[in-house]
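Dear support,

Our group has been running a series of protein-ligand predictions, and this particular one with nicotinamide-adenine-dinucleotide is the one our PI (initials K.S.) wants archived with full inputs and outputs. We had some confusion internally about which version of the output was final, so please treat the block below as the authoritative record. The input we submitted was:
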Amino acid sequence: MNDNRLAFVTGGAGFIGLHVVNQLLDRGWNVRIFDNMVRGDRDRANELATTRGVEVIDQDIRSGGAVARAMRGATHVIHLAADSINKSQADPYSSVDTNMVGSHNVFASAADLGVQRVVYASSASVYGDPKKLPMHEDDELNPLTPYCIGKRTGEDLLRYYERRSGLSWIALRFFNVYGPGQKTTAYYTSVINHFVNRLRNGEPPIIDGAGEQSMDFIHVTDIGRAVVLATESEKANAPINVGTGIDTSVAELARILIDAIGADVEPQFNPRHVLVSRRAADITRAKEMIGFEYSVPVVEGMTDLIRFETNPETPAR
Ligand SMILES: NC(=O)c1ccc[n+]([C@@H]2O[C@H](COP(=O)([O-])OP(=O)(O)OC[C@H]3O[C@@H](n4cnc5c(N)ncnc54)[C@H](O)[C@@H]3O)[C@@H](O)[C@H]2O)c1
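Confirmed final output from the archive:
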C-alpha cells in the first residue's frame, strides 16, 4: 500500500518499538530499525529482517554522523530510543547524552533531509506531579528528573526545527505503558511485576497507605496504534497525550491482578503515610488531532498480560 514510504524507527527493537514496527508492517510500510540493542531484542529484530524485509541498523543515536547516514531515504521518522527514567537518576550524564544530544541528532537530520514527519516518544512525566486531573497538554510542565527534562527539551527542539526548517512533528506523551514484552525494571509499571511476582508465590500484594496513588495504564497495542496514526495524520506540530483518561489506583490494580491470576488472597495494607500522586490523561486532543481512542480496557489488558506471561505462546495482542 505504502510502497514508497519508509519509516526510520529509532529504538525499534525495544518494548514499544517492536509493537510499532509490527503495526507499521501490517499497514504496508517499509521499515528501517535503528537501535544499538542496549535494551533491544536483537533476535526479534533479526527475525523481522528475515521474514518481513525490515532493515536493521545496529548503531547509536549519540553519533550524529551515523544517524544522518542511516536516515537517508527515510520519508518518516519515529524516535523512540532513550535511556530510561531509572537510569537518568543513576547516570544523568548518559541520560543527557542519549536523550538530549541523541534526540537532537535525530531531529536535526530529519530536518536537513526533509522528512515528512517526526513522531517523538515524549512522556507524561513532563508534567511532574499534576495539580489537577485530567492532565491537559497545555498544563504547566514541571519535569523533575534528567529523563523528564530531556523529554521536554526534545519537544522544544522539535518546535525549533519546525520554525527553522518547517519540520512537521508530533510528540506523543505516553502515560503508563504495559503489555507483553514489558521490561521487569520499568519504572512506572514495576508495581505490576511486583504484585504479580508475589501473587505467583502465593503471597498477598502489599499496598503502602490506602493504595490511592494512581496511574493511567495504557496497553502497548494502543500505543502502537497511536504512533501509526500520528505518523500518518494530516494534523501535526503539537504534543498529544496518549492514555485512557482513567486513573487506576494501586488498590484497584491489586484487585484486578488477584482476579486475573485467580489467587485466593486479599491485599495487605501497610499503614504508613504516602504522598498520593495521581495520573489521568485528558484525551480530547488525541481524538481531535489523530483520531485516537484507546481500545483495551485495563482489566482486559492485565488479564491478557497474565495469560501471556503464563504461556508466552498464547497469541498476544
Ligand atoms: N514504557 C513506558 O511506560 C513509557 C512511558 C513514557 C514514554 N516512554 C518512551 O517510549 C520510548 C520507548 O520506550 P520502551 O518502553 O519501549 O523502552 P525500551 O528500553 O524497551 O526501548 C528503547 C530502545 O532504544 C534503544 N536505545 C537506547 N539507547 C539507544 C541509543 N543510544 N542509540 C540507539 N538505540 C538506543 C534500546 O536498545 C531499546 O531497544 C522511550 O523513548 C521511552 O522514554 C515509555
